[in-house]
Amino acid sequence: MTQDSRQIVIAGAGHAGGSAAAMLRQFGWTGGITLLGEEPIPPYQRPPLSKAWLKGEATADSLALRPAKFYPDAAIDLRLETKVTSIDRTARTVTLSDGGTLAYDVLILATGARARKLPLEGADLDGVLELRSAADADRLKAALHPGAKLAVIGGGYIGLEAAASARALGAEATIIERESRVLARVACPILSDFFQNFHRARGVKIEVDVQVAALEGSQGSVAGVRLGDGRLVPCDAVLVGVGAVANDELAREAGLPCHNGVAVDLSARTEDPAIFAIGDCTSRPLPLYDRTGRLESVPNALEQAKQAASAICGKPAPTPEVPWFWSDQYDLRLQIAGMPFDATQIVVRGDVSGAKFALFHLTADGTVQAVEAVNAATEFMGGRRIIAKRKQLTRARIEDMSVSMQELAG
Amino acid sequence: MAKITYIEHNGVEHSVDVPAGKSVMQGAVDNNIPGIDADCGGECACATCHVYVDAAWLDRIGLPAAGSQEASMLSFAAVTQPDSRLSCQITVTDAMDGLVVRMPEGQH
To answer: Which domains does chain B carry?
Structure first.
């Protein structure tokens, strides 16, 4: 297949890097592609790790982004347990963790993000876990047997999904959150309340407005979380889910601008025209909202993989998408379209107590910026269209269920 | 195992063998067939694995149940038709040998 002598090196074989390699072939790239992954397994989907994988409902095959034979078949040189340790932009080479050097014509940074660590006494005890990789998920899975006690530090999506999975496996779960509500950074108060009530009704303990003072253990294994008010939450394992940090050090050391992530344009290109960056490690334009930001989501990884592959293969740039996200907990499907920047009012459509509703976030002039939909796929899909069109709606029409989403989006 | 033919919007055909139990979407992704994006990996959360089921197969494959997650997602997918399905929701059986699906102009 290889006809073009140009070489693309992709640093990172997560959802973004693995997808970029496949899209480059789809878009007709005939040069070399080397895909470097730090983990021991080929690219796989991370979202099921906190859900189907923990519950034993997924297999390694179903997790894989592509079958293992795809990479040799597509002439993609996939090298596992290998990472880039430095970039020489003048020579256009990268140095690898195995001591080797690779020349590139195009470099794609897809280095992802890592779990934020807690600078706490006891953080290095056995049983203190995080959840980013399949190996992390296997460690958590081993700890979630019936009757086991899991303490979750951080009431974000990872923590809530893991708590739901823990309950499904018969384990006890306590969520410890320093803010006054779960999902404080990523969802509105109505949604936080809804999820707190839903989890509590299924036996999850939730402590809000609490600090963690230390992790305590005996014989090297964690046995409890000591709270700032002196109480002890006994546990057999702790999951720390307090956010992620962009892996942008390589780019920074190479002198590329980074602002909480590698700065890129809408082609996913960095300041260096030969270097692209995609996925969780980037700070990117959000054209709908006239600002930049870092998005940690699969749809963002895929959108930027497509932007980079299009630019590299000389295809027209894809139309910017409305950012979106999803989370599954119990029998709830949360889908969020857009981001609630500058929103001043929240309008409820549907029935919150019946667990089928959507929350529309509007600016002062009625422009819909975001829609948070629980078990309301039509509202989510319609919301994406409304947000993309920058449509203005009134509270009365959104609340009126006799007005269909087709009419609202039309 | 069933041989499934995927026809891109530009007319390019791809015929591949897909094992029973996989979804029609996975058959396309495993073979890197362009035109099916499958952003969410088969969770019925994104509507980017949209296909048109060939008329000869529509009776056997069927349409999504009214009010189902798939029907809701399809209600706003790009360029839907009466024969639209989300291919992650079609599980391949041996009886689907010869199935033909066509891809829409775009998934986004």
So the answer is: 2-102 (3.10.20.30)
Which pLDDT tens digit goes with each residue over A297-310? 999 999 999 999 99
With contacts defined as CB-CB under 8 Å, which chain A residues touch B73? 377, 381
Count of CB atoms situated within 10 Å of the CB of A210: 17
Domain ranges of chain A: 7-114+245-312, 128-242, 331-409
Chain B residue numbers with beta carbons less than 8 Å from the beta carbon of A406 are 75
* A305/A70 Cα distance (integer angstroms): 18
Determine how β-strand B13-18 pairs with β-strand B50-53: unpaired
- Classify A331-409 by CATH class: alpha beta
Among residues A258, A261, A264, A336, which one has the least CA distance to residue A299?
Answer: A336
Interchain pair A381, B77: CB under 8 A = yes
Prediction ipTM score = 0.92
Categorize the per-residue pLDDT at B108 as very low, low, confident or very high, splitting at 50, 70 and 90: confident
Query: Rounded to an integer, what is the distance from CA A344 to the centroid of its chain?
Result: 26
- Is A340 in CB contact (< 8 Å) with chain B? no
| A237 within 8 A of A254, measured Cβ to Cβ | no
- Tell me how close the Cα of A51 comes to any Cα of chain B, in angstroms: 12
